[in-house]
Amino acid sequence: MDDDFQCVVVHGRIFQKVSIDNSIYCVPVASDELEEDRLTAQHDVLFKLFGNALFSPHMRIRDPRKILDCGYGGGDWSVQCAEEFEDCEVTAVDIYPMLVVDQPENLSLCGYNLNDRLNDPEVFQARAYDLIHSRCISAGIKSNRWTSYIRDMKLLLRPTGWIQVVEYYLNIQSSSGRLTDDSAVRRWWLAYAEAMGRMNRDPRIGTRLQHLFHEARLRDIRVETVQLPIGDWEADPVKADIGKETVGIMGDLLESLGLWPLTQQLNWTVAQFTQLISEVRSELQNNELRLYVPVYVACGRRSGQGGP
After folding, report:
1. Residue 306 pLDDT class (50, 70, 90 cuts)
2. 151-179: per-residue pLDDT in tens?
3. If 0-12 CB within 10 Å is exposed, 13-18 middle and 19+ buried, where does residue 205 land?
4. Residue 188 is inside which H or E element, if any?
5. Mean pLDDT in the chain?
6. Strands, E, within the chain: which ranges?
7. What is the pLDDT of residues 72-104, one digit of tens each?
8. Helix (H, G, I), strand (E, B), or coil: what is residue 117?
9. How far does CA 253 lie from the centroid of its chain?
10. Rounded to whole angstroms, how far apart are CA atoms 135 and 55?
């Protein structure tokens, strides 16, 4: 069997063996049924959060010919993108190259470790892509890789092509100001951030995107922080509907992301982790806390013909 597809079960969840062995992406993969469902639900919520759009309207993209999706997970974004732009060649890469059902003919899937330089001619084409999309991959990217990762994506863009990077900042906030350091979501965050630091990962990468995009000399840079509500406490009915869906999704996300790091890096027992997640889920259901997650959305383009 190809090493990319070899899996191992850890505490009842399915992980990619090569990722676990080499500390690359220590999160359940999309062939784990719970994770596949979570990824699809997450895609649906983020699609609604961004106004039923696959990418920011700030990016002026018309009739794209080539699109690259970095870290496609279960393939929800890349499949929808390929279906929406039927004449566009969509390439999607992931450390775990899971096959997708009813894969569109204009979508190609490939296994690739994004910590490696994006210069393999069998996978990537230099100066070719109208859009490069990267979403929710911070658990799999080394902290010191981000500078070259953004630059690598820029070099793959055609002149005037766009990059969009989307990342959670999982230090959950409360607009009611009622969260304390003793809150379950805060205890999860502090433990997760410590474990990520030990693994050379940056869970605060969203806060660095503005600097990284400027450092890469991208143009028309725009970084927005969008509040993803947790619970239906928002007065706006659309946001309330999104928030209602997010309650379960966020609990599943914190469980998926935290399971391996907290038990393997911090030596928590499974019982300790399960108890914390139970408390987290209870807090996420508490509308009086008025919880939300900051989502960083960064986009920028390459200069025109002849520019860097």
Report:
1. low
2. 999 999 999 999 999 999 999 999 999 99
3. buried
4. helix 184-198
5. 96
6. 7-10, 13-16, 66-70, 89-94, 107-111, 129-135, 157-168, 173-174, 219-230, 291-301
7. 999 999 999 999 999 999 999 999 999 998 999
8. coil
9. 11
10. 11
Tokens encoding 275? 């108890």
What percent of the chain is modeled with pLDDT above 90?
94
**CA–CA gap between residue 227 and residue 168 (Å, rounded):** 10
- Gap between the terminal Cα atoms of the chain: 42
Encoded tokens for 44: 């649906």
Torsion of CA 57, 300, 141, 90, to 10 degrees: 60
* Residue 262: DSSP 8-state: I
pTM above 0.85? Answer: yes
Domain positions in the chain: 3-301
Contacts of 223 (CB under 8 A, 6+ apart): 209, 210, 213, 296, 297, 298, 299
Place of tokens 């987290």: 280
How far from chain centre, in Å, is Cα 72? 9
Q: How many beta carbons lie within 10 A of that of residue 230, not counting itself?
A: 30
Give the model's pLDDT for residue 304. 84
Q: 278 CB contacts (<8 Å, ≥6 apart)?
A: none
Residue 7: the pLDDT is: 97
CATH code linked to domain 3-301: 3.40.50.150
